[in-house]
Amino acid sequence: MQITLIGVGQAGGRLADTFLDIDGWLRRDPVVGACAIDTSRAYLQGLSAVPDAQRHLMGIDQAKGHGVGLDNELATTIAIEERSTIAEIIDGLPITESDAVLTLAGLGGGTGSGMTPVIAETVRNKYDIPVYSLGILPHSRTSPIQTLNAARSLRSLRQQTSHVFLFDNDTWADPDPDEDLYRELNEQVATPIGTMFELVDRVDSGHTEGIETTAEHSDTVLSTNAFSAVGFATESAAHIPSSEQNQGLFSRLWPSSTEETGENSTKTDESTPSMRREQIENVLSEAASPPYTLPVDPDKDRKAELFVIAPESYISEADLSVQELATAGQLNPTHIHACTPSPTGSSDRVSAVCILTDDCFDRVAELMEKAIALQNDPSWVEELEVADQFPDILEDRSTDAEATPADGNDDLEPLF
Fold first, then answer.
1. What does the DSSP 8-state code read for residue 138?
2. Which one, 195, 269, 355, 357, has least CB within 10 Å?
3. % of the chain beyond a pLDDT of 90
4. Are 274 and 306 in contact (CB under 8 A)?
5. H or E stretch including 134?
6. 34-51, pLDDT tens digit by residue?
7. Which residue stretches of 46-178 are H helix?
């Protein structure tokens, strides 16, 4: 599947950078084009892989190139007022060569959470193409405004996109990660998602090898308007026949055992299908077990989709069935759709991606509940250190003598 990336805000731009970096590590390049959109000139200048011509500064009159802080309503207003500019940016991307567009954004800040839904709507209105989103949820110990930003943005993204993949900073990061951790987290986000887009068209076209499937080919995770959490695992293939070449699908991201130890890697004509089968099962079990990119209730049934990447000898000889994959992955087999890639070359890794899909994960429901409470009782606004960085809707309510928690809505105010 060929995708075009649109990174919005600081986190979105950094993710676009990372996707472009790992694009060269994949057998088939899923990314055909990318751009970054921001209200901060400094954040755009800090990118490396996104081409200069595809870094777009918006809201110059309002934000003066310094960003919008946490004010996602201002970011939404900028996007709406400059919708024609967004359309021109989109037209400058290889949309017609793509099978889908993937927006990337941190949902706790101002620019990413506020502009991304408008950008997604603009793409959807101009092109008959699926629009997916990858959203980063803020840490629960960050400012309340970031919780509200994320919830309102998620509500709009659900309306404007076909599917939303989520990464929860609560699970993976400290509230204030350093630069090295940021880079590591971005790789942990981009690698399984990029791999999935590289492989998902094989499910749609029915190209599966060595593994049966339980679902119709058209019934993939991307066909449902829902949220997804992702699990991923990879390790060096320990039982590759000596005739195979050591050119791994992820060899640049994860060095082979030879590179890691300086010793000869385990390539032998004495390896058996049972040894390869056991390693696939172990990797699947790890990918299908917590932690995922989002906390998941293990007792709730949900659709799960498994992607397996392994050397050709593993796939041709392991002969795993869906039932056995489900057992290895500790998942309900009635909710499994499994496939394997048909690599254009050999791999020295055994890797698995597990996509878990739900209409509303507990973490999302909790985020929404907190956001509604904050929206209906804005007394917390006065405690913000930066008093000018919150949506106008809260400012209006905090100064309205008649507004009380009892007057609040049971739903979030839309961004637009």
1. P
2. 269
3. 40
4. no
5. strand 131-137
6. 999 999 999 999 999 999
7. 60-63, 72-81, 83-91, 111-126, 144-160, 169-172
Considering only CA atoms, which of 193, 212, 190, 194 is closest in space to residue 203? 212
Scan for tokens 């796939």, then name that residue: 315
Higher pLDDT, 31 or 88: 88
The structure tokens 């991923």 sit at 232
Are 138 and 106 in contact, with CB atoms under 8 Å apart? Answer: yes
Question: Distance between CA atoms of 103 and 116, rounded to whole angstroms?
Answer: 7
What pLDDT was estimated at residue 92? 97
Cα 60 to Cα 11, 38, 68, 138, distances in angstroms:
20, 10, 10, 26
Lookup: tokens for 21? 């970096």
Owner of token pair 């640049």? 252
Angle at 386 between CA 380 and CA 392, to 5 degrees: 65
Closest CA to 228 of 286, 169, 167, 187: 167
Query: Please, which residues have CB within 8 angstroms of residue 275's CB and are 6 or more apart in sequence?
Result: 238, 239
pLDDT at 298 over 60: yes
Q: What is the dihedral of CA 8, 29, 240, 288, to 10 degrees?
A: 40
Bridge partners (DSSP) of residue 374 are none
User: How is residue 142 written in tokens?
Assistant: 């960050």
- CB contact at 8 A, 53 and 88: no
Q: How far apart are the C-alpha atoms of 110 and 70, rounded to whole Å?
A: 4
CA-to-CA distance for 385 and 252, rounded, in angstroms? Answer: 43
The pLDDT tens digits for 185-233 are: 888 888 888 878 876 655 555 545 444 444 444 456 677 889 999 988 8
Classify 30 as helix, strand or coil: coil
For 106, the token pair is 């941190």
Predicted confidence (pLDDT) at residue 286 exceeds the cutoff of 50: yes
Label each residue of 158-184 as H, E or C. HHHCCEEEEEEHHHHCCCCCCHHHHHH
Q: Are 98 and 30 within 8 A, CB to CB?
A: no
Helix (H, G, I), strand (E, B) or coil at 312: helix
